[in-house]
Design goal:
homodimer, alpha/beta, Arc Repressor Mutant, subunit A, Rossmann fold, 2 domains, seven-stranded mixed β-sheet, 8 helices, 9 strands, disordered C terminus, DNA-binding
DNA sequence: GCCCGGCTGTTATCCAGATCACAGCGGGTG
DNA sequence: CACCCGCTGTGATCTGGATAACAGCCGGGC
């Protein structure tokens, strides 16, 4: 049995929503409520919960606490595990400040930068160390997730160092496409490409000019698919 | 004929790679080269190029210049279009500095923030305006893409204002799931969920504790699928 | 001049993930 | 007590995207 990538991503969003509801005092919920809150279909929520090993009653729905407990078991890393951030530029700082206050279990445990001026600073409560110490720090305190927020030209080399140092998943904010051994999980977050995609689909209904092709050029169109149960 | 989302995203990455090669003086390329550079299969590159309306010769491959021209036609927004950034916190600043130097055609044309202390500053060459002016500025200078880098609690309301002001695509860095009229393209970039996903798949090979389910809990495992042509 | 090899363009096939559909249940109502 | 309603759990089906497969072409070698 293995969980699919999109499902794990959804579990994380279920958990966020359920935590808010828990703070608000809600004790039980129905698949439909979660679905509406997140723009999914109720059937998909039920299926995800089933695969995650959660169960509910047909009249009372699912107990919020039990769901959150189960999600913690599935999603939370071991006690002293966490993130290793490479690159403390603008984006790295944004991540540090974001994660500093947000995620309790998924903290940045080590941050590295190649710029001597940045090293030694403490950003969001995390000390920034010189990149040379990456291997020695991770040898003492292994971490399973690396985050790349460096220039694209440095990404491949740093990724390899991270993997050699024991990292088994990398979140790559770089435009570089990483080539790493099988078994290492890579999550690419290509902000530039996402912005270009949005710009494309914003224009998509307008006719395009027709320069290179001799034939008429298709007018690309996209709809946001309706994401709700037909009922 | 419509282009799929993943395809448009790939086109953006093809373009980035081809631009680098063009700077290096390379004039022609083969599907295999692009595929290897980006971790895709040659067949997929050929298919994308075909759908994009590009053609090459079986002996010389594709001319780099022609590909880039075609991609510009498809991906570049109209001359005075661009991005409208909402929220100039850490992440907003990172985006401004990233886009300031990178994308020539996809610039941030307006930036807004609700914090009076932030307004009036100029970040990365873009003046930060008070959020109240969103409608009046966009009325004078319509932009087709909005970028949300605000707290999740403000996201839905701001998104609706953007759409009323003429925005047709939104890049949502917020954890909120937006409910917007059909026809508005939404690209969610959920950094928190992505980090949790990476943490999960980093752990995925370890046995999990088995608390709630009476039965043995499955050990979820994921492989990065091999992404190359079998040949 | 003829064959061979490799690359393009395109069709056919496959697959994961999402959607649909429905059996089963349990409590509420009359 | 019998019926009804709505929700869970789950098999069946659908679909879009990726992969595989191959016909056609062209230039180079012999």
């Amino acid at each position: 049995m293995r969980f699919s990538e999109p499902m794990v991503e959804r579990l994380a969003t279920y958990r966020r929503t359920l935590r808010r509801w828990q703070r608000e005092g809600r004790e039980r919920t129905f698949s439909r409520e979660l679905a509406d809150a997140l723009g999914l279909s109720a059937a998909q929520v039920r299926r995800d919960l089933m695969l995650a090993g959660c169960s509910g009653s047909s009249t009372q729905g699912y107990p919020v606490d039990a769901l959150l407990d189960r999600f913690s078991t599935l999603l939370d890393p071991p006690e002293d595990d966490g993130l290793c951030l490479c690159g403390v530029g603008h984006l790295g700082r944004a991540l540090l400040s974001y994660l500093g206050r947000r995620q309790p279990k998924l903290r940045v445990r080590a941050a590295f930068d190649s710029d001597p001026a940045t090293c030694g600073q403490s950003v969001g409560g995390v000390a920034v160390l010189p990149e040379e110490q990456l291997e020695s720090v991770l040898a003492k305190h292994p971490l399973s997730v690396g985050v790349l927020a460096v220039p694209a030209s440095a990404a491949q080399h740093l990724a390899e160092r991270l993997v050699r140092a024991g990292v088994r998943a990398i979140v790559n904010f770089t435009a570089a496409s990483l080539r790493l051994p099988h078994g290492v999980f890579v999550e690419d977050i290509d902000i530039g490409a996402s912005l270009e995609k949005a710009a494309f689909f914003a224009q998509a209904r307008r006719p395009h000019p027709v320069p290179p092709a001799p034939e008429s050029v298709p007018v690309p169109v996209s709809e946001s698919p309706p994401r709700h149960e037909a009922s």
